[in-house]
Every structure is written in C-alpha cells, then in structure tokens.
Write a structure and sequence with these properties.
3-stranded parallel β-sheet, alpha/beta
C-alpha cells in the first residue's frame, strides 16, 4: 500500500514556557557510558505532572501505518512534499548580525567529560563562540552536582562570546547502559527493551518524569530516543545497539509507537529530544565508535520500513535528528552517512520532509571517521545538509571551527549553507527560550 505524502508538523507557537524559565536566568541574552560496561556505547558511540506549556505537536503518541495483516507497510517511493524551510521567526535577522566565527560556532557541540573541571571549556566557548556542550563520561554525583556544572556552562553565554544566545546543554539519557546522569535526583532508567514492555502511555509518563529531572539539572537537550530497529536475525550481534538492548523492538511499527511515546514525555517535561541514528544502525555488526569494520549496511533503502520510527519522530516535530556514521551501500556506497548528501539532504530533508536541526553522532573520537581529516568532518557534514557537528574531543574544535570559517571565505555556496544551518539552530533556540528577538 502506498502511503500518502507526509509533512513535518511544526509547533504553531514557541511555547516552551517552563524550559524557557529554567534557562533564561542562565543565559546572558549517540558517548562513553557510565561504568555499566567498558565498551557500551553512548554518544561517543552514547510521576509528577508537567505544568509547562509545551508545543502541541506530538502531544499524542503516533503510530505508523500498517497493512491490514499488521505488517508495516513500505513507505511510498514517491518523494514527499517538502515544507518551506524559512522559519517564521527572527532567526534570519539574528544570524545576519553574526560574523563568520559566530555562525561557525553555533554549528559545533563539544563534550565535557565528568573528570574535567567545569571551567575547562570556558576559553573554547568564548574564542570559538560555541553553541552547545554535551556532558560525557558518566556523571554519577547526582542532580546537584550536574546542576552546578550546567549553571556555570549556561553563564558563559554572552553577547560577546555566544552572540547573545544560550547554550544547548545536552546529555545521553536513554536508559540502561546509556544513562550518562545518575545518582540522587535521577531515576534509574531501564533499557529501551525493558521500556518496551510497558504501554506507550506508561512510557510517556515515565519519560515526562525523566525530562523533569533533566530540566531541574539544567539539561535542555536529550540525545534520545533510539529509533533504530535491530532485526531478530542479528540481535546481540549488532554491536552498537542490540548488544546493549538499546532498541525498543525488532518490529519497526512497535519502535514507532514507543519513539512517539518517549518524545511526548520529553516534550511534556520541557526538554528537546533527538531521534537517532539516522537512517538506522540496527543492521550492522560493528560499533562505529570503536571500529571502521562491519559498519556497512547492505539492506537499507530509501523506502525501507525501518525508516518509519524516524518518520514518526519527524511527524511529531522532534527537535533534532542525529545521523550516524555507518555506510549504506544501497543509498550512497562507500560514504559515511554523516558525509552523504543523498542521505542527509535527499532522504532526510527532501524525501522525509525534515526541516529541523540535524546533528552528527560523535565524529571527534569515532573510529568510523578517523580517516577523514578533522576539519573536513565538520565541513563535509554541512555540505551534506547537516547542522551541528558533535565532537567528544575538545581538542578537535579549533580545527573544525577554522575549517568552517576558512571554507566560508573561499566558497560562497558553502557560506550560504552555513548561514542556512545557523538559522535552523537559532530557530530552535528561539523556540526553547535560549534566544530572543531584538
């Protein structure tokens, strides 16, 4: 059965009231896991009722279309209609006032390891005008400890250093092996496989509670949920996901329902969410964080049913989509997804009509992209149609930032891509209360 074209439904109003309240006072205007296992992945690979007013899009749980037999239907091979990409906000005006360095900085998110000083990124944020930070390495000291760090990070925002924009402060809070924040104030989250044993409504209630805990600790972006589907024929042989029970199910229809439920809870708790790892890393065996072998998917196509959980997230207005580093021989042979225009632009943006922020999985320490020069990891992602390059290694930021600004000077078309990407990031920050029209 051919599905009707889908469009990403954007929130009608920027109504992140509680999130804005939590971060306005702080702004001046898929990670190495905790000790659950030495090789478990995260981004470097890893019930109170909410009282906030949140975007209405995605407030209810979505379900994917299926045939009468219950088998997920294959998405239409026709290209979906792409909605306008010009945001109905002042984002273009804010970006127009930025210089090249400020625009480039908004497109970088850097990792802060739990063993590092909370002030260790101060100079980097200021000199490179960075737009985001992610907490990595397993923070086990509880909410108060995290809050002290996020309060300091948010205080770095200023007109001079961050173009007057607040920081995206992110964490990998999926559950199970990938729960970066633990201790007092954080519930112990079960793995996605265990979360799947509950109903979608129960998961939304749990996710709302988890989001409230994140927001209290000063986290405004969760790099979750996982939208990957691991087929039963691979199971735990799937290094990045199946080995750690990070998938909801082996049925993409079920994954879609639970992704929608998790997203609804994040939104109810006032935290931006991320579906990952597009276009799906459930069919590979190698973990892209630690190897460049076994990372080629020879099955996934542009009309694959395993794309349905990502489609659900897009229809629900998810704030970010994370692209992985695997290779898809039936879409763009030999090219890591993060550097692939056929995947980021043609498939994600055009075919699936996603016009929001696209972020990389870690490309600072990941072995899958180690052969690519550090600076090119950022410029190639932007050229593919992406926005935020995430790096777990602060030492890679200068090379990435320099590469972006240098290419902007020599390549007007690339400079336009940077501007467009910066507008998408600033538009998200406006909706989150991290930026304001002026």
């Amino acid at each position: 059965m051919r599905q009707s074209p889908t469009r990403r439904r954007r929130p009608s109003t920027p109504s992140w009231t509680v999130l804005a309240a939590a971060v306005t006072a702080l702004a001046a205007c898929s990670t190495t896991p905790p000790a659950a296992g030495p090789s478990a992945p995260g981004t470097t690979a890893q019930p109170p009722t909410a009282t906030s007013t949140v975007p209405t899009t995605g407030a209810s749980t979505s379900t994917s279309t299926s045939t009468s037999s219950g088998t997920p239907s294959t998405p239409s091979s026709a290209t979906t209609t792409k909605p306008p990409t010009t945001p109905s906000s002042c984002a273009p005006d804010l970006v127009a006032r930025m210089d090249a360095g400020e625009r480039a900085g908004q497109l970088l998110m850097v990792g802060l390891d739990n063993g590092a000083s909370r002030t260790s990124l101060d100079a980097l944020v200021a000199r490179r005008h960075l737009g985001g930070v992610i907490l990595l390495g397993g923070w086990t000291g509880g909410s108060d400890s995290v809050r002290r760090t996020t309060r300091h990070l948010s205080s770095l925002a200023s007109a001079e250093d961050t173009a007057g924009l607040g920081l995206l402060v992110a964490a990998d809070q999926e559950g199970g092996a990938v729960q970066q924040l633990r201790g007092d104030g954080f519930s112990r989250m079960p793995s996605a496989r265990v979360q799947d044993q509950s109903s979608p409504g129960a998961l939304t209630a749990d996710a709302t509670r988890w989001a409230n805990q994140l927001r209290t600790a000063g986290i405004n972006v969760n790099l979750a949920p996982v939208a990957d589907t691991v087929p039963t024929s691979i199971g735990r042989a799937n290094g990045p996901i199946g080995q750690y029970d990070r998938q909801f199910s082996s049925d993409p229809e079920r994954v879609s329902r639970m992704v929608g439920a998790f997203l609804a809870g994040m939104r109810a708790g006032g935290v931006a969410a991320t579906v990952k790892h597009f276009p799906g890393i459930g069919r590979i065996t190698g973990n892209t964080d630690v190897t460049a072998r076994g990372i080629t998917d020879r099955t996934t196509t542009v009309d694959d049913p395993y794309l349905e959980p990502f489609r659900t997230g897009i229809q629900d207005g998810v704030e970010l989509v994370m692209v992985g580093s695997a290779i898809y021989s039936r879409i763009d042979p030999g090219t890591n997804a993060v550097f692939s225009k056929p995947i980021v632009t043609d498939l994600l943006r055009d075919r699936l009509s996603y016009d929001g922020v696209v972020i990389t999985d870690d490309v600072g320490a990941a072995k899958a992209v180690a052969a690519v020069p550090v600076g090119e990891r950022a410029t190639r992602f932007i050229q593919a149609g992406g926005d935020i390059t995430l790096t777990a290694r602060p030492s890679t930021v200068p090379a990435m930032h320099d590469a972006i600004t240098s290419k902007m000077k020599s390549n007007p078309a690339f400079a336009q891509q940077v501007e467009t990407a910066a507008i998408r990031v600033v538009d998200l920050k406006l909706r989150m209360g991290l930026a304001h029209c002026r």
